[in-house]
Amino acid sequence: MVLDVNWTVKWLTLCAQAMAEHRLELIELDRAIGDSDHGENMDRGFQAVLAKLDEDMPETPGAALKMTAMTLMSKVGGAAGPLYGTAFLRAATAVGDAIEVEPAAWAGALAAARDGIVARGKAEPGDKTMVDAWTPAVDAARVVADGGSPDVLDVLVAAAEAAEAGAVATDPLVARKGRASYLGERSAGHRDPGAVSTALILRAAVGAAA
Asked: What is the pLDDT of residues 5-18, one digit of tens each?
């Protein structure tokens, strides 16, 4: 399996499907500790990405990621648009003009995406944000890539599984960033919607490689 533009387009398509399927779940999660719009925003944003793909098929993974970034920034409201837009833009820059993305390069792109989110949102692990899913995903991907695995699917699976565990681990945390932080101790016991949407995105990357 290679991470080429066909894989990237399939990944983005599966992201759109995941956001549509989990729209209500994300809305409910956000209703508990946010402003209820995360599911609606993510669904609308990735449907707009699909529309862009129908208009103009990108030639490289980097081009597809950059298009996604620009679309999410313009179509997704709240904090998610700038955060995910920055993530995809940093990932696009990391992979550059490559026709195929190698395992180590993909791990690097995930790290660049996470670092973009941190730079934009100023959140750290433990703050009960999407960073709590991104950081373990980056760490897991690096371990596999640095181990020399020739199969990029191993990197994708490691990242997805770590992100899913990271999202679950936000349940007991007290939010220190974003609207959820206004709730203080009452934010504990609820899963962070941004961490969940992150896990959905990284799981879709696995599905695109299957």
From this structure: 999 999 999 999 99
> Which residues lie closer than 8 Å to 5 by C-beta, 6 or more apart?
57, 58, 59, 60, 61, 63, 64, 99
**How far apart (Å, rounded) are the C-alpha atoms in residues 41 and 7?**
24
Q: With 0-12 CB in 10 A as exposed, 13-18 as middle and 19+ as buried, what is 153?
A: middle
Per-residue pLDDT, 184: 82
Look at residue 3 and give its three-state secondary structure: strand
Q: How far apart are CA 115 and CA 64, in angstroms?
A: 20
C-alpha–C-alpha distance, residues 62 and 58, integer Å: 9
For Cα atoms 102, 86, 145, give the angle at the middle one, nearest 5 degrees. 25
Encode pLDDT of 72-109 as tens digits.
Answer: 999 887 889 999 999 999 999 999 999 999 999 999 99
Q: Please state the pTM of the whole predicted model.
A: 0.96
Largest CA distance in the chain: 48
